[in-house]
């Protein structure tokens, strides 16, 4: 992950400035301030962790949905307690970030009281990077499962056209002295957001990510978006995508089986479903013992004998945390076209332009 010429041509945005900018644009589009604070924190967290595909660059597409009246900027989610350990959140077609945030907060509360909390979320929208919800649980000392469904992008194994979403499967566990365990992965070879990012930045994509509309391999992002994503591990990736739809779509009462709307399609509501679980890690042993065991696992994994050409073995979620440390220091890199797209949104609502600077420190990753 060496610093490239392209990266040096980028401008950098400080995380606090990015949050303020997003907050102002959201408020300018009718989002209540307390909700804008949550959404901006989640988006900037994705940029900080290096998941630029699901960060502040999503603002133009989200605002287009508000303008077209298919995402309700004023909606706040509601919660219904079903049993002492089960709750249901209705996202009421507001931001997915708000519904998922409320859902995980409820799951954590139930887990603190009863050991486990499970929340089904319906009528929601895209919630960006799943890892921020896993981190919400880790910050409360909880293990978690975070599932969502999403719009069709992937054929099921043996199929030809898009049916399932590249819906990320995510989970996590806190540690003691080591870094927490955070898995957050789309069941495709690459997340579709990486193709949108390549399109925005005029970059080629690897030929094993997607097929064009004629079923041929392509390195062209625009052609890939007209075609289908490829599942990771063949039928296994396809099965995981269906699993996300069973738990998030079928169970919740939201859209499923290929009927979730793409976040870039502002013609109708998305009706996304999520499935969230929090688990208290001291159910079967004292907390300290659990943490020691996590630390032992971390040291065994990261201390593995390395294959040729590998400098360091990382724990899942670790590269993102290292990236965050770096970006907190040197800022979030954006290309000029992305900055302009963001400033266009600011201009529409009379908000200030995003504050940018040239990078002063080279990337260490
Ligand atoms: N909300 C949605 O509908 C939606 C849809 C698709 C993707 N996404 C998001 O897109 C993001 C990107 O997904 P992705 O599948 O491209 O992720 P990825 O391939 O970058 O990473 C997948 C997992 O592998 C781990 N990993 C990566 N490199 C590693 C290394 N060298 N050593 C050890 N572990 C390593 C990461 O920590 C992560 O947990 C995710 O945050 C996901 O939530 C969201």
UniProtKB/TrEMBL annotation:
It comes from the Eukaryota. GO terms for molecular function: oxidoreductase activity. InterPro entries: Mal/L-sulf/L-lact_DH-like_ah (IPR043144), Mal/L-sulf/L-lact_DH-like_NADP (IPR043143), Mal/L-sulfo/L-lacto_DH-like_sf (IPR036111), Malate/L-lactate_DH-like (IPR003767). Keywords: Oxidoreductase. Gene3D superfamilies: 1.10.1530.10, Hypothetical oxidoreductase yiak, domain 2. Belongs to the LDH2/MDH2 oxidoreductase family. This is Malate/L-lactate dehydrogenase. It comes from Trematosphaeria pertusa.
């Amino acid at each position: 992950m060496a610093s490239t010429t392209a990266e040096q041509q980028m401008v950098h945005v400080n995380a606090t400035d990015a949050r303020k900018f997003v907050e102002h644009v959201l408020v300018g589009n009718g989002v209540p301030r307390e909700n804008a604070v949550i959404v901006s924190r989640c988006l900037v967290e994705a940029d900080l962790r290096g998941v630029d595909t699901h960060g502040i660059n999503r603002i133009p597409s989200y605002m287009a949905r508000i303008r077209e009246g298919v995402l309700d900027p004023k909606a706040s989610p509601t919660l219904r307690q079903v049993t002492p350990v089960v709750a249901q959140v209705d996202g009421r077609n507001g931001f997915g970030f708000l519904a998922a945030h409320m859902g995980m907060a409820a799951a954590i509360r139930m887990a603190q009281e009863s050991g486990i909390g499970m929340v089904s979320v319906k009528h929601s929208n895209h919630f960006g990077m799943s890892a921020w919800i896993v981190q919400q649980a880790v910050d409360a000392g909880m293990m978690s499962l975070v599932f969502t469904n999403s719009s069709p992008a992937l054929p099921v194994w043996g199929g030809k056209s898009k049916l399932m979403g590249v819906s990320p499967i995510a989970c996590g566990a806190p540690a003691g002295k080591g870094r927490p365990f955070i898995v957050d992965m789309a069941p495709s070879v690459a997340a579709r957001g990486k193709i949108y990012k390549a399109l925005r930045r005029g970059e080629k994509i690897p030929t094993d990510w997607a097929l064009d509309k004629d079923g041929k391999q392509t390195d062209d992002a625009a052609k890939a978006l007209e075609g289908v994503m490829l599942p990771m591990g063949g039928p296994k990736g396809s099965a995981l995508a269906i699993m996300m739809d069973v738990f998030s779509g079928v169970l919740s009462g939201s859209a499923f089986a290929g009927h979730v709307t793409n976040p870039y399609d502002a013609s109708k509501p998305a009706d996304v479903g999520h499935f969230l679980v929090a688990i208290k890690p001291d159910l079967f042993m004292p907390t300290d013992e659990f943490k020691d065991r996590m630390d032992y696992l971390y040291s065994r994994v990261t201390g593995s004998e390395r294959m040729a050409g590998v400098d360091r073995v990382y724990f899942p979620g670790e590269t993102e945390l290292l990236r965050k440390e770096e970006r907190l220091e040197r800022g979030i890199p954006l290309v000029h076209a992305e900055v302009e797209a963001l400033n266009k949104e600011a201009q529409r609502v009379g908000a200030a332009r995003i504050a940018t600077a040239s990078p002063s420190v080279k990337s260490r990753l």
